[in-house]
Amino acid sequence: MSIRVTVDRSRCIGAGTCIYLAPTAFVWRDENRLKAETLDPETVEDEVLRMSYAACPTQAIILEEEDGSTD
After folding, report:
1. pLDDT at 42
2. Nearest-angstrom CA–CA distance, 29 and 58
3. Which CATH number fits domain 3-65: 3.40.50.200, 3.50.50.60, 3.30.70.20, 1.10.3210.10?
4. Which of 1, 14, 51, 56 is the most exposed place for a label (fewest CB within 10 A)?
5. What count of Cα atoms within 13 Å lies in the side-chain half-sphere of residue 65?
């Protein structure tokens, strides 16, 4: 099953947990490290994306399963 991942910038506080867990899937949006954004989520296992989602302190990571359901 494929997962589509986005970061809700209005919720992101720049904690960096997603970048720590999946450094090839997420990246800092700008030099000030204020927000994260997706880089290449296909470079990590779906389970790692789910862990990043669960670890986000503000629930800024949005997961969409291939079947259309969202978390």
Report:
1. 94
2. 17
3. 3.30.70.20
4. 1
5. 7
Give the three-class secondary structure for 43. Answer: helix
Q: Quickly count helices (H) and strands (E) in the chain.
A: 2, 4
Task: Tell me which residue of 21, 16, 68 sits closest to 37, measured CA to CA.
Answer: 16
Per-residue pLDDT tens for 8-57?
999 999 999 999 999 999 999 876 668 999 999 999 999 999 999 999 99
pLDDT of residue 33: 67
